[in-house]
C-alpha cells in the first residue's frame, strides 16, 4: 500500500528511476522500523536490573517523607526494600534521638524481621556471622535484661534463645552455630547470651578458637542474693527438692558450706575469672552490676554501649521502673499497646531464708569477693 500510494502521488508513472528509488526507500524504512520494534521490546522485557533497583529504592536519607516507588520492578528487589526500610529508620533515630522516633525504628525493624521469617523464598539482607560479643554469665545475674535492653540498639542484632554452643553443642561445629545467628549488616554487631559459659571450664578456650578478639560481657550480682534467686527458680520447677539450708551446708552446726552444689560454686566469681584470663585480656571483659542494672539501667547500658564501641542511643528516656515487678521496663513502643517488661519469672519474690544462714553465706563469700574486686579493679559493695 505504501508503495502504490507514494508512486501514484509523488512521481509520474513513466519515471522508472524514481519508482525504483521510492521502492528501495520504502523497504529500507520498513526494515528500520522492524529492527527498532524488536530492540524496544527486548529492552522492555529485560531491563537493566541495577538501574531499576536504583529507581525503586532511594537509600539516601531524605527524611520521613521518603517513599518507595510503586512499580512492578520493585517487587523484584525485596532485598533493596529491606535495606531501605532499616536505613530510613536508623536515620530517623540518629537524627532525633527521641522516644517516638526510636519506636518508629522498632516498628520498622519488627516488620522487616516478620516478613523475613515468614517468606523463606524472599531475598535476605546482610549475612549470618559468628558473634562479635557474648554475654557469658552469670545465671540469675540479670543476663536476660542486658540482652533485651541492648538489642533495641539499631547496631546490635542478637539471638533471642540460648544456643549453649560452647558448653553443650560444640561438637555440632561452627557452621551450625553460625546458622543460628540473625543476619547482620557489616556495621552491626552479632550477639548471643548463654550464662552457663562463665562456669564451663572449656568455654574460654573454645571461644578463643572462634576469635581471640571476642568481647565478653559478665553480669555479676551479690553471690548470696544470686544463690537464693537460683534456688527460688529451681523450687518453682521442682517443688520436692530439699530445703535451702540442706543444700547449702555440709554441716549446718559447724557452718561448713557445700561447694559441690553448683548454685554455690557459681558465685565464687574469682575462680571462674582466673580460667577466662588464661585466654582473654581483662580489657576484653566487661562486668555489669546486677544491682545497678535495677537502680540505674541507663547508666549500666551506657557503659555496655561504650564497651561495644557503639554510639550511646539507649538512655534513661527508654526506661521506667515497674514497682509491681521491682524491675525496670522499656517504655511502650508505638507498635505495642503495652510496655516491654521481662517475663513473669523476672522479679519473682524470693523464698524466705533464715537471717543466720544469710550471714554465714556472707562470711563464706567475703574472701572470694575481695579477690574478685582486686582482680577487676571495682568494688561492687556486696559486703
UniProtKB/TrEMBL annotation:
Ranges where the Sulfotransferase domain occurs: 132-366
EC class name: transferase
SUPFAM superfamilies documented for this protein: P-loop containing nucleoside triphosphate hydrolases
Residues the entry annotates as binding 3'-phosphoadenylyl sulfate: 140-144, 221, 229, 346-350
Membrane topology label: Single-pass type II membrane protein
InterPro entries according to UniProt: NST/OST, P-loop_NTPase, Sulfotransferase_dom
Paired cysteines (S-S): 329-341
Domain of life: Eukaryota
GO cellular component terms attached to this protein's record: Golgi membrane
Keywords: Disulfide bond, Glycoprotein, Golgi apparatus, Membrane, Signal-anchor, Transferase, Transmembrane, Transmembrane helix
Major localisation: membrane
Stretches that traverse the bilayer: 21-40
Location relative to the cell: Endomembrane system; Golgi apparatus membrane
Active site: 140 (for sulfotransferase activity)
EC number: 2.8.2.-
GO molecular function annotations of the record: [heparan sulfate]-glucosamine 3-sulfotransferase activity
Family per record: Belongs to the sulfotransferase 1 family.
Protein name: Sulfotransferase
